[in-house]
């Protein structure tokens, strides 16, 4: 069977049997089409007669063309699925894609702020109007707890216990209790007692943080707030709400907190997600050593 006929059968299978989405269909067919073009140009073989060596050569060729590891990994997944189909249809007898193994992408460590940069950012909201008090409370709370921006804007007034100094964060039907440092308690207390009542559109609004219309703050609204204060602080690093989450975790670890406690506060289901901060702290120590040691 020639390549065009193989492609037509596979496309029909993806559409009518697998009920693949338009994006999945487009991605799979593009990857398989690119493999077919390579085989046409560089070998005398088709999909049906391609050998394991030729498929390995194809992935090496993609690497030489500057394709990224995620792109090559996706292509390998597409090729493997394609040959599983060809085996099922008895178009090929042996699977030449069996030995294809994607490279592991190098894990990119998250960017964090230094302690001084955090202080500088938290100093930016000017408590001269309602928005200033609200913004200071939001930034202090975000750095105090390391919660996600989606969790921050989902907080209700009843999720805060000022007297005990903690918040209750609910995500994916799970609940966690996270303590607050004194400055965050003070900022929240002032906001809740004096500022929030003036900002509410309705007295029965449950949202902890509201926008200028008196309704729940949106994710996009908070992103704009944090970008404004980044520019005001003249911090060159790109700051997102997640930057404060990463900084919270790394700074706790630097100061002696254990990974299990950090995992619980961050709401990570798997400790491996938290262990990235250990790598980050070790890298920072190594950078300090290399800069400071006279023989480094």
Structure explained in plain terms:
The chain is mainly alpha-helical and 296 residues long. The chain folds into two domains: 86 residues, DNA polymerase, domain 1 (Orthogonal Bundle), CATH 1.10.150; 178 residues, Intergrase catalytic core (hpI Integrase, Chain A, Orthogonal Bundle), CATH 1.10.443.10. The protein contains twelve helices and three strands, in the order H-H-H-H-H-H-H-E-E-E-H-H-H-H-H. Strands 1-2-3 form a three-stranded antiparallel sheet. A hairpin with a 4-residue loop joins strand 1 and strand 2. Helix 6 packs across helix 10. The N and C termini lie far apart (63 Å). The model has no long low-confidence stretch (mean pLDDT 91).
CATH class of the largest domain: Mainly Alpha
Number of separate helices:
12
Span between N and C termini? Answer: 63 Å
- Strand percentage lies at under 5%
CATH architectural category of the largest domain: Orthogonal Bundle
Note the quaternary state here. Answer: single chain
The unreliable regions are: none
Order of helices and strands: HHHHHHHEEEHHHHH
Please state the CA-atom Rg, rounded to the nearest Å.
27 Å
Number of domains: 2
């Amino acid at each position: 069977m020639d390549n065009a006929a193989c492609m037509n059968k596979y496309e029909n299978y993806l559409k009518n049997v697998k009920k693949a989405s338009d994006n999945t269909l487009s991605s799979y067919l593009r990857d398989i089409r690119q493999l077919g073009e390579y085989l046409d140009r560089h070998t005398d073989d088709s999909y049906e007669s391609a050998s394991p060596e030729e498929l390995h050569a194809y992935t090496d060729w993609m690497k030489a063309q500057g394709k990224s590891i995620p792109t090559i990994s996706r292509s390998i997944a597409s090729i493997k699925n394609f040959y599983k189909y060809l085996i099922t249809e008895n178009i090929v007898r042996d699977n030449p894609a069996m030995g294809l193994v994607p490279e592991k992408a190098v894990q990119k460590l998250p960017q964090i702020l230094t302690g001084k940069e955090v202080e500088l950012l938290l100093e930016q909201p000017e408590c001269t109007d309602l928005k200033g008090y609200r913004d200071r409370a939001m930034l202090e709370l975000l750095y105090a707890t390391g919660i996600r921006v989606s969790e921050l804007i989902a907080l209700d007034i009843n999720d805060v216990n000022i007297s005990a100094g903690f918040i209750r964060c609910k995500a994916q039907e799970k609940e966690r209790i996270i303590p607050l440092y004194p400055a965050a308690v003070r900022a929240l207390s002032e906001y809740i007692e004096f500022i929030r009542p003036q900002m509410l559109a309705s007295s029965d609004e449950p949202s902890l943080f509201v926008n200028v219309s008196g309704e729940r703050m949106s994710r996009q609204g908070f992103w704009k707030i944090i970008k404004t204060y980044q520019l005001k602080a003249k911090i060159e690093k790109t700051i997102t709400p997640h930057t404060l989450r990463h900084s919270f975790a790394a700074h706790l670890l630097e100061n002696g907190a254990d990974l299990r406690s950090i995992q619980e506060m961050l709401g990570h289901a798997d400790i491996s997600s938290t262990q990235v901060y250990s790598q980050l702290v070790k890298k920072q120590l190594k950078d300090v050593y290399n800069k400071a040691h006279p023989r480094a």
